[in-house]
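Collaborator request log, item 7. Partner lab (contact: R.S.) asked for a structural prediction of Putative lysophosphatidic acid receptor 6 to inform their binding assays.
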Amino acid sequence: MYNTTLSADSFTQPWAGNDSANSSACSKNDSFKYPLYSTVFSIVFVVGLVTNAVAIYIFTCTLKLRNETTTYMMNLVVSDLLFVFTLPLRVFYFINQNWPFGSTLCKVSVSLFYTNMYGSILFLTCISVDRFLAIVHPFRSRTIRTKRNAKIVCAAVWVLVLSGSLPTGFLLETTSKENSRTNATFCFENFSSKQWKAHLSKMVIFIETVGFIIPLLLNVCCSIMVLQTLSRPQTISRGGKLNKTKILRMIIVHLFIFCFCFIPYNVNLVFYSLVRTKMLKGCSVESVVRTIYPVALCIAVSNCCFDPIVYYFTSETIQNSMKRKSQVGRTYDTKFSDALQSETSSNLQHSLRNLKAKVFHNESSV
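Returned to partner:
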């Protein structure tokens, strides 16, 4: 029997189906999440749509030189946009607390949430590993760091992410609210304790290991080894202080976004799984996890807005392209201004000649 308290997402939401009396007795006072979700998701939709649309324009229309790094970034943009397009449906649900769009769209929306989160994690990790190879092993990695290999890696990431997110989303079933005057249909909330014990706890282990722990370790290890390489005297003399500063700034931005967006949600997910499988018991634990979850989810969703920052700091190609665009604009403005001044001067000279001719004509006729 499902608990009909409204919840917000498939893994960490459904305090539905609490089987024990002790769990049922726990107070579930988390209605603050609905205005929080609707507000944050609306902002993320607008900012994420604009920034990622600009990013995809740069990748497809502006960049003349494309390499393996931009290949990973283009796939990251696609992952972000797929999720951003589902946010208006979620905002509608959080405001109205009713899902009128049917079971299939609910499942797709849930699947795209996990596709975006773990796709972002894995593509950011690919960028980090690519940077590690380029800086720590610049010569030996030449045969590995190719656009063809980058496309193969991206295809493997999509297969891996979809193999985890699609089953997660399509295990979910929408249900109608019972014992109420309104027949509100739920989305993102229907996993019972039995489902958690049978299937979902294993899925959490898979996505946390492959989609979070291993990528986190890779990002941290790659960043440490890059910093060690940059600290060597021969590297400093070869690359210069300015280049080292740029790379250091790039690493800091990358790690900050990765840790800020993904650690809170994924750590909370582990504890939630332990609570739902009854390995952790107690109302205090349940209350803490329920309170942390909405904030962690909003932070995780904000990665759609932060990813374009990674594009700029990670890719010198993009920076150069944007500088060229700016220079072209300034050159055009200068040429236009010069032409305008030249035309104005020419017109003025022509007017003066006409005036002089008229004056001369008048003088000679007197």
